[in-house]
Amino acid sequence: MKNGLWRTCIGGFATAVFCVAACAQSFGAGAKTIEEMEKELNALKASVSSLTKQMESVKSEKAVASVSSDTKEDVEALKNEVTTLKEEMRTAAQAETLKAADITGNVYSEFAKKVKLGGQIRTRAEYANGWYNPVDFSLRTATTSTLSTTGTPSLTVTGTTLGFPLVGGATTSTLSTTGVASNTRRSAGRDDDYVLNQTRLWADADVNEHLRVFIQFQDSRVFGSEGSTIGFADDSANNRIDIHQGYFDIKKLFDLPLTVRVGRQEIIWGDHRVIGNFVWSNVGRVFDGGRFMWDTDAIHAEAFAVKTDEDGFTTSDFPGVDSSGGSDEAVYAGMFAFKKLVPGALLELMYIQKNDQDQTAAIGPALAAATASGGQVRGNTIIHDIGARIDGKVPGLEALDYTLEGHGQFGDIGDLDKEAWAFAGRTGYTIKNVAWTPRIGFEYTFASGDDDPTDGDDETFDNLYPTNHWQGNYGFIDVVGWRNMHGIRGNIKVNPTKKLMVQVDYWKFLLAEEEDAWYFANGNRAFAGAVANNEDDLGQEVDLTVSYSLYKNVGILAGYSVFLPGDYIEDSLGARDDFDTHWGYLQTTVTF
């Protein structure tokens, strides 16, 4: 027993000495790699485990009683050796941690693991002419003309009235001709080509269970618009660096499915028809304010209050307008969505209030008529919009999809009463069992116009804050908005491969009311004043769209559109001014 115990102790002691020597070597020159240090640490751990087991075996009363005093001294020595080895292990572990920190920095901290970084670079080259860009009426010449500074801005040519921008600081002007106007060349939109570039970088941090922070920087610019890329040029009109989004979320507030979001943020409802982020724009739209969101498996409810314009108190030289007050603009809205109430569909109920204190902002013909000849429009613009949207697929017939959306508006625009409404409906059938999986679609849209600008009512539907370009709402070329219009659409979309999509759209546009104006997608009137004729045929449009997923993070989008004017434009401008509008683009989006 004594000899066996002695041999065991001697063997353990030799192993311990070897491990200590190896450990000393590993910390000496500092040339060991982390992997080598880890192997040595594992060897130390194995030695300590073996020695501990041996000590436990000799700690029994019988074994201790049967050994000599020398053996007991050997056991005490082993205990001391184990203590030393444990200290060496602790020192080695600390060294390994410091070494790893030197190499990798702090990117493996607990908070860093919760942060997601990303970015996107979007570059789009465009060519456009015709009505896509401002139309040049300056080329018209008249035989005789007179200029006055009262009345509604108009240009009278052989009985036809056209609007044109005011110059020279005049508030209103009228240009009348006593003879037949002649053209040095026909009026036309200016040809233009340009390249837009949008760069976004963002950080998304889930700080903890109840807090999320999102920050997104954006640089928007037009190639070459700075005049020089040497140094730094000031051209804020075309180039802008800003915080596109910056907000925080308080999640699971009071342990409820409630999220509160505060800050600058994008807000999208449905098909972007009344609330959208204007994603096609090189800058985009965001809202500054607070938002409450309640989300469960069955319902989604939200409400927000945002400011879209903060000007404080201003004065205005608009004729007949009470200039005392501010020009701030705020939006208050709420939505209640049912996810399971309608089989296979999402039902959304909406309320939006537009509160605009800028008393010169309204652009409808009713306001122009009310303010002509010294008339007055006092008070703010307050529009109440109540809407509903249903989006889904027919149960039992999953190939048939549909979307219906309607809005009614009431309120006040100064002294005028707001009464307007709009409707949009689309449906499509996807043929899944044939090559290219074609989808054939049909759509009808309507927005009310004002049939009598002098009756004290404003009946032109307000498109509010949309992304009209989304899904080709009212055509991809964006020369028609959701105001005073009928739109009839037919389209077909095919997918020749999993990466390639091709879509062709045809639109027919009509005015809802001939007494009202033609409105672009941005809400502006094509003519500065209403054009009175008996035609409602606005025109037709053909759009070709092609998208291709080149790689997982690289997408290509291209399109070409043609807008052909109808009788309304032809009669308004004259036969020689019947020019078409062409628009084409090529866009590449890289996301990382």
Q: What attributes does this structure have?
A:
592 residues; alpha+beta; Porin; 6 helices; 27 strands; elongated; disordered N terminus
List the helices and strands and how they pair.
Elements (H helix, E strand, L loop, with lengths): L1 H27 L5 H25 L2 H6 L2 H36 L10 E14 L6 E2 L3 E2 L3 E4 L5 E4 L2 E3 L11 E4 L4 E2 L4 E2 L2 E17 L2 E12 L17 E11 L7 E8 L21 E9 L3 E11 L19 E10 L6 E12 L8 H7 L9 E14 L2 E17 L2 E15 L8 E9 L9 E2 L26 E10 L5 E11 L26 E15 L2 E12 L1 H7 L7 E11 L1
Parallel strand pairs: 5-7, 20-22
Antiparallel strand pairs: 1-10, 1-27, 2-9, 3-8, 4-7, 5-6, 10-11, 11-12, 12-13, 13-14, 14-15, 15-16, 16-17, 17-18, 18-19, 19-20, 20-21, 21-23, 23-24, 24-25, 25-26, 26-27
Helix pairs in contact: 1-2, 1-4, 2-4
Structure described in brief:
This protein is of the alpha+beta class.
CATH class group of the largest domain: Mainly Beta
- What's the structural domain tally? 3
Q: Which structural class do you get from the secondary structure elements?
A: alpha+beta
Number of strands: 27
Tally of alpha and pi helices: 6
Summarize the amount of helix as a percent range: 10-25%
What does the overall shape look like? elongated
| Biggest β-sheet description | 18 strands, antiparallel, barrel
Q: Output the radius of gyration.
A: 37 Å
CATH architecture label of the largest domain = Beta Barrel
Please name the CATH topology of the largest domain: Porin
Question: What gap, in angstroms, lies between the N and C termini?
Answer: 71 Å
Instruction: Return the average pLDDT rounded to an integer.
Output: 78
Q: State which percent range the strand residues make up.
A: 35-45%
Low-confidence stretches: 1-11, 13-31, 136-187, 317-324
